[in-house]
Amino acid sequence: MAHCCSGRFLESLQYSQIVSPQESMDCLPPLARKISALLGSHTPRKLNPANKGRAAVLMPIFEHDRDLYFLLTLRTDKVETHKNQISFPGGVRDPKDSELVQTALRESWEEVGLAAESVTILGEFDEYYSITDLIVTPFVGWLDSLSRLTPSPDEVQEILRVPWSIFRNDDLLRIEMRRRFEREMKIYFYQFGEKEVWGLTAQIIRDFLQLIEPLEHSGSD
Predict the structure, then answer these.
(1) Which of 12, 119, 152, 207 is the most exposed place for a label (fewest CB within 10 A)?
(2) Contact (CB, 8 A) for 140 and 44
(3) What's the rounded Cα separation, in Å, for the pair 60 and 120?
């Protein structure tokens, strides 16, 4: 199910308009501003695009009762790939998407009804290869509201609000060695209730939290 009101809005935006201007940043909490500054100084890893499709995901972050959360989705068994797995909202770049950040925002709207105007893009993170032969580009977004989220029944079983503390707790982590991209790799699994966050989503989260860890320790002032 595609939500129907933001297509023309997203198509008209350029990257400079979507990556949030200073006046939007001034309204953010201190940690969000620090994350944006860090991502601005961080050179994202870029992968060789030869013979690879392109995809983008949104990494939605929000604060609740002084704790930080990721907004994730539990995929249905109707989608083509990653059935019944937990992931960030996102998908394959559409020819109409002039920028990959548009892909991330468009897919977030279509999958969970997250309106682009409720997202402050903090910056771009490292690129990753997926097992579906895509290069995935994550964009970190701060959410000022979670109201009116509506999962697309064909794509999303459930919208999940997952605290960062899950990914800080080694008791909830297990690691498997699996062969990926012609080499042995660590695959991370994080227990979230009766569910697991694993694979590429877990790797992106782990890398991102390692990058910003000094900010959290420095306080929020």
Answers:
(1) 12
(2) no
(3) 9
